[in-house]
Amino acid sequence: MQRKNSRAGSSLVSICLAIFLLLFTISTLYVFVRKTWWFPNPITSLGRDIDQQFHRTLIITGIVFVLSQLGLAWAVFRYRDRGQRASHIEGNQVMEVLWTLATLVLFVGLGIYAERAWAEVHFRPASPGALQIEVTGQQFAWNFRYPGPDGKFGRLDPKLVNASGGNPLGLDPNDPAGKDDVVVPVMAVPVNREVELLIRSQDVTHSFFVRELRLKQDAVPGMLIPLHFTATQIGQYEIPCAELCGLGHYRMRSFLTVMSQEDYDKWLREQAAANQ
Amino acid sequence: MVTHDGGGAHAHHPPAGFIRKYIFSTDHKVIGIQYFLLALVSVFIGMFLSLLMRLHLAWPGAKLPFISGGIMTPEQYLALMTMHGTIMIFMVLTTAPQSGFGNFFLPIQIGAEDMAFPVINMLSFWTTFLSLMVLLAAFFVTGGAPITGWTAYPPLSAIGEITGPGEGLGQTLWVVGIAIFAGGSLMGALNFITTTIDLRARGMSLMRMPLTVWAWFVTAILGLLAFGVLLAACILLLLDRVAGTSFFIPGGLVVTDKLINHKGGSPLLWQHLFWFFGHPEVYIAIVPGMGVASHVLSTFSRKPVFGYRAMAYALCAIGFLGFCVWGHHMFVSGMSPYSALAFSVLTMSIGVPSAIKTFNWLGTLWGGQIRFTAPMLFAIGFVSLFVTGGLSGLFLAQPSIDLYFHDTYFVVAHFHLIMGVAAIFGIFAATYFWFPKMFGRMMSEPLGKVHFWLTFAGVYLIFMPMHYLGLVGHPRRYADDTGAYFLAPLHNVHLFITVSAIITMTAQLIFLFNFLRSLKWGKKAEMNPWQATTLEWSIPSPPPHDNFAGKLPAIYRGPYEFAVPGAVEDYIPQHLAPEEVARAR
Lengths: 276, 585
Fold this sequence. Notes:
- The complex is a heterodimer of chains A (276) and B (585).
- With 276 residues, chain A is an alpha+beta fold.
- Chain A has 5 helices and 10 strands.
- Chain A folds into 2 domains: 97 residues; 151 residues, Cupredoxins -  blue copper proteins (Immunoglobulin-like).
- A 5-stranded mixed beta sheet of chain A has the order 3-2-1-5-8. A 3-stranded mixed beta sheet of chain A has the order 4-10-9.
- Chain A is elongated.
- Chain B folds into 2 domains: 240 residues, Cytochrome c oxidase-like, subunit I domain (Cytochrome C Oxidase, Chain A); 204 residues, Cytochrome c oxidase-like, subunit I domain (Cytochrome C Oxidase, Chain A).
- Chain B has a two-stranded antiparallel ribbon.
- In chain B, α2 runs antiparallel to α15 and α3 packs parallel to α4.
- Chain B is globular, with a radius of gyration of 24 Å.
- The N terminus of chain B is likely disordered.
- Classes of the chains: A alpha+beta (276), B mainly alpha (585).
């Protein structure tokens, strides 16, 4: 190896590397601090809890990110070959133990702390009075079924499924419980009322996702999966599909509208009338 | 450890004839190059597929070459995406780092004449080659390539062509191709493990093995335990597709108004089987690169690896924990939410040995005498990329945060930075480092530096913005951004990514040109152009057929004896007897 050339060139390369890493670190920090591209505002208190945990994680990973990239930048600049002999250091037990413990406590601690929000989503069932809505994914649409005044969902029979014929879920006309069921392609819920979704699929795996709720749940064929939330803000929110389900995956989008109790009651009446 | 003669009962004289020398060779060096060339061809195929994808995402209405009909349909997009992921992960990241460089250099670095099972080694390559042919055939059958992603979740992948184009023969070929690949990988894993345990030269204790050998060893164990599960899963999926079984298909399914005649199966079973393989698989992709990074950083800092023992243990810890975390791909799958607790804590824990390695890489540079050769630049880039890619994993490892990020571009950013860039940088570092030894010629340093800068800048420009798409909630595997209103403002980001990708992909032609040109016209390489310490630098460039010309080495010290106080040279090779070192003082 040509030592003289490598020494001359190494200063330029090391400075470029250090500056590149510095610029990269700064520009990344900028985007995250300015929130140039960011989550939409959450519309549940769970959503706010999750955002707080995200922030905690962001701070910790941000610090590690900055220290590592800038540490790398400094090392490649400071220790470029200027004719010095390297130090024969084989390691440092104390440092190894220290940074192992520090990352262990930080990372595992973060992980344990995150479980609270998860527990709220999945370890606590919906309250008994929650409004139940059945969500069905299929290639390539969402359908939502309300149980109607009797509060009971009617029987579904796969043999009766006929999307083109107006019975996308296969509702059994012989089951009286299903007579008042309302099936609609968009979902509406009253504000400040707990809702329990019962998520299922007709054909392949889909995934129900509402960004503002900070919730996502795969719709798995053969399973009925509950998911509860309480929306605290009126508005219209998109429901994109979040699990590859075929060629129409990218356009399998529905809407969740959060309304006042009054507007919701009116909406449900209108849908029920249209369903008859 | 037992001293052996060499690599099994094969003849010591080189084979005669073109076919036995270069096609059906049992020489680990030839096989290593064959795997490398397979990966080289595959990476350009895989890149081309992603180029088409990116062109469509930026300009959805544009007529593109190689697309029948001109304007890409959603199913064509998904087919490209499926094959891009499949080819890159299996044919590039699972071959080049392990079967490519590992095959060539593992025996040499431990002082052996060949692998323990040279014939099985040859079979493993041709099995892998066959699997690539079967996979590529999917493009040319009726319906085309499958559209289910490299993860092939049933029922979408299990029921047949009624679920979508490409889901007929194309998906079947994919399943068969992957099963064949699994077979080839199992053969290779067996070879690596046996060779490392059994064929180390006198004095080459475990704690004197180069970290590259540790990495290949751990990777092989991962492969041996994981690929069997993938093979089993593929067989079950194949049976569901062609034999009427229902391992993964529940009853009562209706696809486009047609009742499906299956019952009793579980889509989640596939996910458990696939990810039990799939997570170790991504460690198979990155661990050899970690070994190369340690090796190259030490060599060009002229300094021992900082914390060699910790580095070896960290590799083992990453390998072991890698088998315990598969559920983090399944937090929202419908799997028990209680298991998510265990998977989450275990996943966060795997960040600990990863952090140890990162700090030790920095420690290796610290106090060094750094020479910025092309391999060193890629090793330094590896560290930066590993940090960036690894840290986003800390978000995804928490199920409450994963509720938002699962199946968004945030995940795409994470795995591309770790696999599609850091692991690739490991391959680049290895190529620039070992090219002189493999081919007896030097690659062009200036071209190597240009390649590095364009690529390092380019990959960050491509993949950092994908985090931002994920923050907004942009789902992945979307053929375009016209299906939801909230995606419209992100189109400019897609444009930016595509332009960055075009430039970065073009820059790879510089590497290809450098590689091919240097094979014939590179400056002749001496035995130890980098003044390195490990055994491959003690034999000619390129090495003779039996590596050590009949004289197996003995090992007297660890693999990274640089800057030893009192020594005349700033490095002491592993094989130099103490008397020879003393004479030089």
